[in-house]
């Protein structure tokens, strides 16, 4: 079953519904919130003004007034978003900063990677 990511734009009292993405091959019985959660976890949640899911929703059925944007609409398979895997980040830092980070990780009994994941998560409120 396919699910749609729809942006709702209010114009006066009327609402426009614009297709922003499609998730293909979602298992039967899945709920829209499950699809939204998987997209968020995979780092694919739509956002507006820096707010995830602002004016966006997931739907199983196509609204009668659904607008198709120009160009290609994003598509993902369920298999790709369900288990997206870790992303890799390569950051170049001066030797002195690297040594301080390495020492901080060792002091906490963590590898530098585990320490960096924790620090990045804390920095963004995760």
Q: Care to describe what's here?
A:
The chain is elongated. It contains four helices and seven strands, in the order E-E-H-E-E-E-E-E-H-H-H. Strand 3 and strand 4 form a beta hairpin. The longest helix is centred in the last third of the chain and has 13 residues, at 95-107. The protein folds into two domains: 3-82, no CATH class; 86-126. Helices cover 32% and strands 27% of the residues.
Q: How would the global form be characterised?
A: elongated
Structural class: alpha/beta
Termini separation comes to 31 Å
Mean pLDDT: 91
Helix content: 25-40%
> What is the count of helical runs?
4
Strand content: 25-35%
H/E element order? EEHEEEEEHHH
Query: What would you report as the Rg, rounded to the nearest angstrom?
Result: 20 Å
Low-pLDDT parts are none
| Largest β-sheet summary | 5 strands, mixed
What is the strand tally? 7
Instruction: Count up the domains.
Output: 2
Concise description?
The protein contains 4 helices and 7 strands.
Tags for this model:
5-stranded mixed beta sheet, two-stranded antiparallel sheet, 126 residues, 32% helix, alpha/beta, 7 strands
How does the SSE layout of this entry go?
Elements: E1 3-11, E2 14-24, H1 32-41, E3 47-48, E4 51-52, E5 56-59, E6 66-67, E7 74-77, H2 78-82, H3 95-107, H4 112-123
Parallel strand pairs: 2-6, 2-7
Antiparallel strand pairs: 1-2, 1-5, 3-4
Helix pairs in contact: 3-4
